[in-house]
């Protein structure tokens, strides 16, 4: 029974670690866009700005900026104030030192959108370090629209 109890404790530890980040770059991006549904519930109204979402999705250097975001003119992650997303394409562009660059493409209300997620793999799993659109970066956007 002692070895089984040890396995149960280890499994519980893995669950808490996984809750902070994701096991792969693709799963992180899939989970970001899972929040962009029909706005019928809190789970489909865009990526939340609460403490749990901060810890789960963002690198510590980006958490405060996401949390203190005022009322921006649009949601950076979908490049629009409203959304109806089509199929999402996710591919790893390159791995460079401690960062992985992930290309994301989708249609939002019939308009093509491309984004590059810059992700880091820390002790808590994969987290967002920055996101780039063709014209801007999430870090610059957050700095421009902070409270």
Topology (SSEs and partners):
Layout: H1 2-20, H2 25-33, H3 51-57, H4 60-67, E1 89-96, E2 99-108, E3 111-122, E4 125-132, H5 138-144
Antiparallel strand pairs: 1-2, 2-3, 3-4
Helix and strand run: HHHHEEEEH
Oligomer: single chain
Radius of gyration from the alpha-carbon trace, in angstroms: 17 Å
- How far apart, in Å, are the first and last alpha carbons? 54 Å
Low-confidence stretches: 1-18
Strand content: 25-35%
* Strand order in space, largest sheet: 1-2-3-4
Which term fits the overall shape?
Answer: globular
Question: How many helix segments?
Answer: 5
Question: How many strands, which pairing sense, and closed or not: the largest β-sheet?
Answer: 4 strands, antiparallel
Helix content: 25-40%
Number of strands: 4
Class computed from helices, strands and strand pairing? alpha+beta
> What is the typical, i.e. mean, pLDDT?
85
Provide structural commentary.
This protein is of the alpha+beta class and 147 residues long. Helices cover 34% and strands 26% of the residues. It is built from five helices and four strands, in the order H-H-H-H-E-E-E-E-H. It has a four-stranded antiparallel beta sheet with strand order 1-2-3-4. Strand 3 and strand 4 form a beta hairpin. The longest helix is centred in the first third of the chain and has 19 residues. It is globular and about 35 Å long. The N terminus is likely disordered.
């Amino acid at each position: 029974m002692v070895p089984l109890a040890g396995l149960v404790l280890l499994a519980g530890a893995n669950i808490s670690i996984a809750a902070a980040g994701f096991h792969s770059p693709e799963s992180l991006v899939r989970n970001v866009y899972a929040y962009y549904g029909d706005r019928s519930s809190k789970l489909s109204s865009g990526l939340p700005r609460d403490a749990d979402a901060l810890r789960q999705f963002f690198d510590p250097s980006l958490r405060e900026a996401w949390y203190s975001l005022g009322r921006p003119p649009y949601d950076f992650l979908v490049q629009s104030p409203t959304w109806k997303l089509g199929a999402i394409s996710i591919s790893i562009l390159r791995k460079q030192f401690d960062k992985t660059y992930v290309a994301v493409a989708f249609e939002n209300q019939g308009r093509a959108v491309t984004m590059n997620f810059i992700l880091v793999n820390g002790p808590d799993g994969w987290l967002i370090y920055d996101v780039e659109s063709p014209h801007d970066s999430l870090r610059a956007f957050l700095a421009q629209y902070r409270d």
